[in-house]
Amino acid sequence: MNMIPSDVKIHPTVLFSIIDSYERRNEKMTRVVGTLIGTNIQGNIEVNDCFVVPHRDGDEVALDVEFAKNSMNAFRKINPSVSIVGWFSTGNDIPNTSCLIHEYYARETVSPIHLTVDTNLKNNKPEVKAYYSTELGIPERKQGTLFVPIPIEITSYDSEQLAINLFQDGKFSTKRIVKPGMDFVNLKLALDDIYLMLNSVTDYVDKVLAGKIAMDSNVGRSLVKIIDSIPLLDAQTFDTLMTNQMNDLLMVQYLSNLVQVQLTLNEKLALI
Amino acid sequence: MNQNDMPVFCDVTAEEQIEALKAFCVPLGAKIISGNSQDVLADLVKNMGAFYAKEISETDLEMVLNSLVSLIIISPEDKCAKLASQFCENLLKASLPERYGVVKLRILSNLFHGLISTSKNRYTVFVYLAKCSLAAKNLQYLQLDLDLIKKYLKTWQSSIEETQVLYRLLFEATSQMNDSQNALKFINELLSTYTKDTASKSRDDAHRCIVYCINDPNIFIFDNLLLLEPIKFLEGELIHNLFTIFVSGNLNQYTEFANSHKQILIQFSMDHEKNINKMRILSLMSLAENSKDLSFDLLQNELKISADEIESFVIDAIRTKCIRCKIDHLARNVTVMSVSYRTFTKQNWHALKERLEKWRENLAAVDQNLTNILAQPALLQMS
């Protein structure tokens, strides 16, 4: 079976943990390294999680192998289907010492990948790169290692995406604090988003009709496809539908609040 | 950024590496000159056939060739071009068993990544990578991201001819693998490289494009190709007429054309039966654009099929994702829910705008309702 990595999908939680662990590193550490956990299906790698492994850099590199093994066993208890797919290191390039760590991981799993996350922002952004290693030399005498880059894609589950969108909202707030809103508030925000997008789309169509933008029939077709995929209702029916749903929802919310009040009251009375 | 994106770690010096390769190569029957290491390297690349003349395992071969790659990428710029192109040429021609095809691709891909990213040599390697992918029927290591390729071509300052060679190869590789979307993308780019003045040279490419669009069973919409210079250039020719029928015509027009110009179908080796099938689906799309309810009688009449065939035909049509519809056997009717327009005219844009406006109004109404609800904090604050 061909296990040579051909592409890597990374979940945002992995990148978050890597950056977070870099922020919390010990004072003298120049970088952090750790194990990447996920699945390797015929070279298509998906990284779902990771953990930091203590190590010592310098002239000689030392990795706490015992710690790595124990942590991995703990992870297997939670989810037996995942395995080690490789390892990560912060930094922009691959220093010599990385070869030794890579050799350790090559013993733990078939064709491990190596992920580098540039936490020093050398090119003004946290560049993420992935590599797999291949050997060079002549038969029976290995003389070196090549780190071949592999394309990366950042993917996320729906729930992860939701959390990320929320985090992004905090980017411009001075307090740097965001709170998940209530159901209705979220709904309203989503509506506002769609409204904004619709505005820019309508704007685009207007420009096309005015001849400012060249007519691209493929764009037009894609837009029609989107509109076709939602049911077209007139305002009246839509309103009734919406109000009914909304009334139900409000009723449920009202009743649950009532129950909550009742319980609190009960607690207070019991204390007297 | 003047660097490569493939770090190499070597335990020995380049000279030792070359000596080791030579020592491995000579017993296999190759005559390698002695001299300074650059000359030896050149000779090794020239005679690299020796490495795989006798049986060698995939992993071993990969190791040896990787070693060569690592030496080529560190050789001085003036020698690098010749080494790289000879290496690629030898690898492409190497007659190895089929399962070694993927090894070739990996090696070429390594060489590509190992070369300095602005180096023109990367173009050479990319072309060979495309050729090898074509031969090995494997697109795994071939970069197909058009934006990235355009960026590459710009940094390499490739000429129009070079660009055309590359797009043509990428088109061949993808169309061979039935990757219709990408194939259409590359042939489109290829034809876009021609201008009004050079359109006369594009005849072969334009013909291939038309034949491809008509023959490929997965693509139905290609009206934007009509705007390209090479296709415009063919205007008035039979093949152009045929293409226009496939863009916007119907089944009747096609059969009429095919009856009077049988030779052109043979000339471009098209299959009449397949064409008819495709025209049926295209005609159905045209019909669906004009009316949301299509009776069985109308379909039988327009598409020349029997009543029994309608169901399987409609299922085939839905499978193309160009149309969404339901069959009502009792009313002998097909109800269309949505259809991709074969051509997208100003009229369609107007209709699109109307529907967008309507959607926006509805949304505004919902938004208003919600604001009203949110304005009553008494209901919400307890939670």
TrEMBL record, chain A:
Its main location: cytoplasm. Residues 8-137 form the MPN domain. It is found in: Cytoplasm. One of its GO terms (cellular component) is eukaryotic 48S preinitiation complex. Coiled coil: none annotated. One of its GO terms (biological process) is formation of cytoplasmic translation initiation complex. Keywords: Cytoplasm, Initiation factor, Protein biosynthesis. It comes from the Eukaryota. Gene3D superfamilies: Cytidine Deaminase, domain 2. Component of the eukaryotic translation initiation factor 3 (eIF-3) complex, which is involved in protein synthesis of a specialized repertoire of mRNAs and, together with other initiation factors, stimulates binding of mRNA and methionyl-tRNAi to the 40S ribosome. The eIF-3 complex specifically targets and initiates translation of a subset of mRNAs involved in cell proliferation. HAMAP family: eIF3f. Belongs to the eIF-3 subunit F family. Component of the eukaryotic translation initiation factor 3 (eIF-3) complex. This is Eukaryotic translation initiation factor 3 subunit F. It comes from Brachionus calyciflorus. The lineage of its organism: Eukaryota, Metazoa, Spiralia, Gnathifera, Rotifera.
Automatic annotation (TrEMBL), chain B:
The keyword RNA-binding does not apply. Keywords: Coiled coil, Cytoplasm, Initiation factor, Protein biosynthesis. Residues 179-341 form the PCI domain. One of its GO terms (biological process) is formation of cytoplasmic translation initiation complex. Residues 349-376 form a coiled coil. InterPro entries: COPS7/eIF3m, eIF3m, eIF3m_C_helix, PCI_dom, WH_DNA-bd_sf. One of its GO terms (cellular component) is eukaryotic 43S preinitiation complex. Pfam families: eIF3m_C_helix (PF18005), PCI (PF01399). SUPFAM superfamilies: Winged helix' DNA-binding domain. GO terms for molecular function: translation initiation factor activity. Signal peptide: none annotated. Its main location: cytoplasm. It is found in: Cytoplasm. Component of the eukaryotic translation initiation factor 3 (eIF-3) complex. Component of the eukaryotic translation initiation factor 3 (eIF-3) complex, which is involved in protein synthesis of a specialized repertoire of mRNAs and, together with other initiation factors, stimulates binding of mRNA and methionyl-tRNAi to the 40S ribosome. The eIF-3 complex specifically targets and initiates translation of a subset of mRNAs involved in cell proliferation. Belongs to the CSN7/EIF3M family. CSN7 subfamily. Belongs to the eIF-3 subunit M family. This is Eukaryotic translation initiation factor 3 subunit M.
